[in-house]
Hints:
This protein is α/β, with parallel strands linked by helices. It has helices at 15-18, 27-37, 42-53, 67-73, 111-118, 133-146, 157-168, 183-192, 211-219, 241-250, 263-266, 282-286, 300-313, 319-330, 332-352, 370-376, 392-401, 421-424, 431-436, 453-464, and strands at 150-154, 174-178, 200-204, 223-229, 254-258, 276-280, 294-298, 356-360, 383-388, 406-407, 417-419, 443-447.
Amino acid sequence: MAPSSKLVKTNSLPSHQRSLVQPLGSPRHKRVSALFRAPESSLLQEEFVTAASGEAHHQARARRASDETLAVHAGEKLAGKKDADVGGTGTETDSTATPIVSGTTHWFKSSEDLIAFKEGRRHSFEYGRYSNPTVKVLEEKISALERAEATLVTSSGMNAITTTLLALVPPGGHIVTTTDCYSEARVFIRDRLSMMGAIRSTFVDLDDGMKSLKAVLDENDDVALFYTDSPTNPMLKCVDIRHVAELCHRKGALVCIDSTMASPINQKPLTLGADLVLHSAIKYMAGHHDAIAGCVSGSEALITRIRAWHHHLGGVISPSAAYMVIRGLKTMALRVEAHNSTALRMARMLERHPKIERVHYPGLESSPWHELARTRMSGYGGVVSFELKADLRGTMRFVDALEIPFIATSLGGCESLVQQPAVMSFWGHSEEDKAKNGIKDNLVRFSFGIEKFEDLRDDILQALNKI
Ligand SMILES: *Cc1c(COP(=O)(O)O)cnc(C)c1O
């Protein structure tokens, strides 16, 4: 893509778009671009709709932009244009698709121009490890969806997790997490973080209604961060984020939620009181099992602290991968609706099937997490875990008889994936180790894709007959 093209002639555009291409720095331009930067208040979103309509009589119909609309447009329509009047090198274009800016460094017109940048009078991206125009568009889009002031996009979900923990847990500090959190994050906390600067870690069980979390907070004054997934993987337990945030904030501890299993469509931890929300963006966000990325969102102040560590650790996403996530996000609301619907219908069917012992899905009334999920989430996601009335080999026969899903790890993409944790993650582990992690030989984790419900249902029913 050309590094910079001139602003389109506004009179060649339809009127509703003309109002979006206002002279830079004009009050209306500022109002419109404000939405795409940090739509934390519904007022800004109302202004977007009002400004975009361009007609006074439409003002009465102005309303809050929905996730569906934000997923398509936030961060994009005006990306980079706000810098054009001061010679910025953003993604100024009239292309409907955000350009992939592959340049790794950004040039200055003169030493004076460079000094203006150093003194903060002019914006530049400067160098690819610090930021990139395509990545910035993605960050603004995620901020809009999570109702966050700021977002840092990283090379992977694990990079978002490790960078966040390193930035926010001080030497000698104390981190509390759950026995259910993502396995590699758990290992990082237990085996690596705890070796660095005497960081203490405590693991609490989610099943006790947060009693042990409360006890740890009561007995210690040094808890810097509570970190957990919600829902968890593969047992789909849920955390009462609102309650946890109250408990932690009373003791000055931050709350960070890995919301990967929910997606920004089904759950918004920041609106429930969490300080930070992070995702493995590979999953529902990118949505096609074809791009690796991660992100963390929160207040400007917290993200600035994490970003400083990111500059040093260097876990930068490539602009091409960032574009893949932007593209994926445009259809995320539609996809997640399909995942939610198929998974819930399937969970209900499986629960009644004679060859199924137990189904784990927070959307089921029988789930101990249902009430919590129902009041805190707007959907339950595409992953369903279930136990067959079969042993290890019988469960393997079921998995092998399935024709539609791939036998593969990961989740949240268009294609259904199936795995038996005892084989995929715990093959060769001791019975004791499996029991400690709550992994039974007959457990199956199914990530429902967006294939037709009836096709997936028939496939599962025929495979159950092969046990
Ligand atoms: C996949 C996943 C991660 C790790 O993210 P990567 O992008 O693979 O590094 C973290 N948390 C959850 C819940 C995940 O599903």
